[in-house]
């Protein structure tokens, strides 16, 4: 049986929060059939974001990325469901919004890479690392959802 308990970390960045897109983004994941198991809004510290984006530390845009990300609140989420990492990335769209398909979150709501609304885990391994970085185990709600079980999965 396919893994319907796969998890991904999705974060709405400051531009998405300030533009009032949180509800619209959550709605897309819920309507798709994914289960929200953790959610919090916070203004992350510089150190927290530097650790989150550690794989980009040698990129020339790293300092401006960190400065932007500490500029306002973010909404950190854990979504669960079949192939959520791959499908979550598809739902977000390409990193460069101009290369994102219409209908994707970035394709519909953003124009420039530096203000691309969301972050999504790119692999199950990075999802696990990011989830552990942003959430304590007790902050993740592993609950049964009869609706999702019966009407989303065979």
TrEMBL record:
Record's keyword annotation contains Kinase: yes
CDD domains in UniProt: NDPk_I
Q: Which UniProt keywords apply?
A: ATP-binding, Kinase, Nucleotide-binding, Transferase
- Active-site residues? 119 (pros-phosphohistidine intermediate)
A single GO molecular function term of this UniProt record: ATP binding
Q: What does this protein need as cofactor? A: Mg(2+)
Q: Pfam families this protein is in? A: NDK
Q: Which residues bind ATP?
A: 13, 61, 89, 95, 106, 116
Under InterPro entries, the record lists:
NDK-like_dom (IPR034907), NDK-like_dom_sf (IPR036850), Nucleoside_diP_kinase (IPR001564), Nucleoside_diP_kinase_AS (IPR023005)
BP terms from Gene Ontology: CTP biosynthetic process; GTP biosynthetic process; UTP biosynthetic process
Reactions performed catalytically: a 2'-deoxyribonucleoside 5'-diphosphate + ATP = a 2'-deoxyribonucleoside 5'-triphosphate + ADP
Q: What is the E.C. number?
A: 2.7.4.6
Superkingdom: Eukaryota
Q: Does the keyword Amino-acid biosynthesis apply?
A: no
Q: What Gene3D superfamilies is this protein classified in?
A: Nucleoside diphosphate kinase-like domain
| Family statement drawn from the similarity comment of this UniProt entry | Belongs to the NDK family.
What name goes with this protein? Nucleoside diphosphate kinase
**Which species is listed as the source?**
Pristionchus pacificus
Give the classification, highest ranks: Eukaryota, Metazoa, Ecdysozoa, Nematoda, Chromadorea
**What is the name of the gene encoding this protein?**
WBGene00272291
């Amino acid at each position: 049986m396919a893994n319907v308990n796969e998890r991904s970390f999705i974060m709405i960045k400051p531009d998405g929060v300030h533009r009032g897109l949180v509800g619209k983004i959550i709605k897309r994941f819920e309507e798709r059939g994914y289960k929200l198991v953790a959610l919090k809004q916070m203004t992350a510290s510089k150190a927290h974001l530097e650790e989150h984006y550690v794989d980009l530390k040698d990129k020339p845009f790293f300092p401006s990325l960190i400065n932007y990300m500490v500029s306002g609140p973010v909404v950190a989420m854990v979504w669960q469901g079949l192939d959520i990492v791959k499908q979550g990335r598809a739902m977000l769209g390409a990193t460069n919004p101009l290369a994102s398909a219409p209908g994707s979150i970035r394709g519909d709501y953003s124009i420039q890479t530096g203000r691309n609304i969301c972050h999504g885990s790119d692999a199950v391994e990075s999802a696990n690392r990011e989830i552990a970085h942003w959430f304590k185990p007790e902050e993740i709600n592993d609950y049964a959802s009869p609706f999702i079980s019966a009407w989303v999965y065979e």
